């Protein structure tokens, strides 16, 4: 199955059903499919060939959704670019994948113009909104709006296969330059099939997405909704949480994907305790694990909703989920492998380990990436031969352990582990304890150089406004709940923690 068939099949079966709510407007499946067909034709006219890359430099909007499917219908490979990206990095990505087309907002013409000055392979630039005749490095800026509303649909669809690339997702690289994760149609459809199966998504679902579609967790909310014929509501951010809550109630939202930074905000909104969300069927979390204390409080706030704790990474989208019925027994677990996936833990020699032994998580399944774009050495580190002939499995770089029943527990990134007093320390274990302290909103634990300990443990804490919590209180609590070598040596209070665009805490900025 091809990713664009998610839209096409839903448009055929449910043409008048609301597919998307964005910017206060509602769009049916027939509306979006028609727009995507017209933009696909315009992309082809601008020179986009089968297999060529098209960068989508747009925020959460109708235009972004239409662009994704238009690029695929034209036989291209789409890449979602963070809409806050600056010209220098945008130019790097355009050149790295040798993009033929860029779709961006007219409001950022200056950024686009600067970025494409050094992208000689670019043949077409489409701008959404009023373009005022703007040009970019000699390339006339074409009107996305005109293509959407008045363009002609292509008479002959471009033939693609499941093995063709569908997207390149750029993620941070160890060298400092972004790495392009290559996902074929088969990878993406396999991931969507498994995730919608365990979330039990149907056409009756209304999913509220505040996560950027340039982030794969946000992107898949659109793809999975369209696959099942559901409705997706796109919000540009979680900046105004009370407005998001109002939307949840007004639209009778059934699915609400979150990340830990969102849960930290939600749990400070005391008014939510008085509200009722009878339509909300589930809340899901990934990107980073939710603290156990957050899970418990969210279940109190949204008592009727199932809570899905999940684990995944860009290189394979999703790995595991915890059955909601198990969350009280194993709140710290991210569950077991999702359908059509195998996940196991190995030691440094690549040998599988038994229960309660920490090792690297390895993932096998049809959703595992094809590799990093033109980075064979980096690809070889992550994709290695599996047990079956010709199989490549993903070495995640994440440390896990499993209990006696096979439930997985995230320990930390291999390069995040702290070695203090000769002992290996998991920052996550300490963070769980910190989050259970009354008054702590967010916390991050890192190792800092120490001449005696090797590394000393430093905890950076955000506390509730005007809360009397002190450094002594935290150290005392940690001493009661952690082994001696795990008690932080340094406690630092801060107003906020630095984060990536996807909500992950940037620990490298905390040293």
Characteristics:
alpha/beta, five-stranded mixed beta sheet, GMP Synthetase, Chain A, domain 3, 27% strand, six-stranded mixed beta sheet, 14 helices, 511 residues, Rossmann fold, single chain
SSE order and pairing:
Layout: H1 4-13, E1 18-22, E2 25-28, H2 29-45, E3 53-56, H3 62-73, E4 77-80, H4 87-96, E5 101-105, H5 109-116, E6 124-128, E7 135-136, E8 139-143, H6 144-150, E9 165-171, E10 179-184, H7 185-199, E11 206-209, H8 216-228, E12 231-234, H9 241-250, E13 255-258, H10 260-266, E14 282-285, H11 292-301, E15 306-311, E16 320-321, E17 336-337, E18 342-346, E19 359-364, E20 371-372, H12 376-382, E21 383-385, E22 392-402, E23 408-413, E24 418-420, E25 423-425, H13 427-435, E26 440-450, E27 454-463, H14 471-481, E28 490-493
Parallel strand pairs: 1-12, 3-4, 3-5, 5-6, 6-8, 11-12, 13-14, 14-15, 27-28
Antiparallel strand pairs: 1-2, 7-8, 9-10, 10-20, 15-16, 16-17, 18-19, 19-22, 21-22, 22-23, 24-25, 26-27
Overall description:
The chain is α/β, with parallel strands linked by helices. The chain folds into three domains: 181 residues, Rossmann fold; 175 residues, Rossmann fold; 93 residues, ANL, C-terminal domain (GMP Synthetase, Chain A, domain 3, 2-Layer Sandwich), CATH 3.30.300. It has 14 helices and 28 strands. Strands 4-3-5-6-8-7 form a six-stranded mixed sheet. A hairpin with a 2-residue loop joins strand 1 and strand 2. Helix 2 crosses helix 3 and helix 7 crosses helix 8. The longest helix has 17 residues. The protein is globular and about 70 Å long. It starts with a helix and ends in an 18-residue tail after the last strand. The mean pLDDT is 90.
């Amino acid at each position: 199955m091809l990713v664009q068939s998610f839209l096409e099949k839903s448009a055929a079966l449910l043409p008048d059903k609301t597919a998307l709510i964005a910017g206060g407007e509602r769009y049916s499946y027939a509306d979006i499919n028609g727009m995507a067909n017209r933009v696909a034709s315009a992309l082809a006219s601008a020179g986009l060939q089968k297999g060529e890359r098209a960068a989508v430099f747009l925020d959460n909007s109708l235009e972004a959704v239409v662009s994704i499917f238009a690029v695929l219908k034209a036989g291209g490979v789409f890449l979602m670019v963070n809409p806050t990206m600056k010209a220098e990095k945008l130019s790097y990505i355009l050149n790295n994948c040798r993009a033929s087309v860029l779709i961006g907002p007219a409001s950022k013409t200056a950024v686009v113009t600067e970025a494409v000055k050094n992208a000689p392979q670019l043949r077409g630039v489409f701008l959404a909104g009023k373009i005022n005749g703007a040009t970019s490095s000699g390339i006339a800026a074409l009107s996305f709006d005109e293509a959407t509303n008045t363009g002609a649909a292509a008479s002959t669809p471009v033939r693609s296969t499941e093995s063709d690339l569908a997207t390149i997702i750029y993620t941070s690289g160890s060298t400092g330059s972004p790495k392009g994760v290559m996902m074929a149609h088969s990878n993406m459809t396999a991931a969507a099939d498994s995730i919608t199966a365990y979330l039990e998504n149907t056409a009756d679902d209304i999913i509220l997405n505040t996560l950027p579609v340039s982030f794969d967790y946000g992107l898949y909310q659109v793809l999975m909704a369209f696959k099942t014929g559901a409705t997706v509501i796109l919000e540009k951010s979680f900046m105004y949480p009370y407005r998001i809550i109002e939307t949840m109630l007004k639209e009778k939202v059934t699915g609400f994907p979150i990340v830990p930074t969102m849960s930290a905000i939600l749990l400070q909104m005391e008014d939510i305790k008085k509200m009722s969300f009878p339509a909300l069927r589930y809340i899901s979390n990934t990107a980073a694990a939710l603290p156990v204390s957050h899970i418990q409080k969210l279940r109190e706030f949204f008592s009727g909703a199932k809570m899905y704790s999940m684990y995944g990474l860009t290189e394979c989208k999703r790995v595991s989920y915890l059955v909601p019925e198990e969350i009280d027994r194993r709140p710290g677990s991210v569950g077991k492998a999702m359908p059509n996936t195998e996940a196991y833990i190995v030691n440094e020699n690549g040998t599988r380990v038994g229960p309660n032994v920490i090792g690297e998580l390895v993932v096998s399944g049809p959703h595992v990436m094809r590799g990093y774009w033109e980075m064979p050495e980096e690809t070889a580190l992550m994709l290695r031969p599996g047990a079956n002939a010709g199989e490549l499995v993903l070495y995640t770089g994440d440390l896990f352990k499993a209990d006696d029943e096979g439930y997985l527990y995230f320990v930390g990134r291999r390069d995040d582990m702290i070695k203090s007093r000769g002992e290996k320390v998991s920052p996550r274990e300490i963070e769980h304890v910190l989050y259970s302290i009354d008054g702590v909103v967010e916390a991050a634990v890192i190792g800092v150089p120490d001449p005696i300990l090797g590394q000393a443990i430093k905890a950076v804490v955000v506390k509730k406004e005007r809360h009397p919590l002190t450094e002594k209180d935290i150290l005392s609590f940690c001493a009661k709940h952690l082994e001696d070598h795990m008690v932080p040596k340094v406690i630092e209070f801060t107003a906020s923690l630095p984060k990536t665009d996807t909500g992950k805490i940037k620990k490298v900025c905390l040293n």
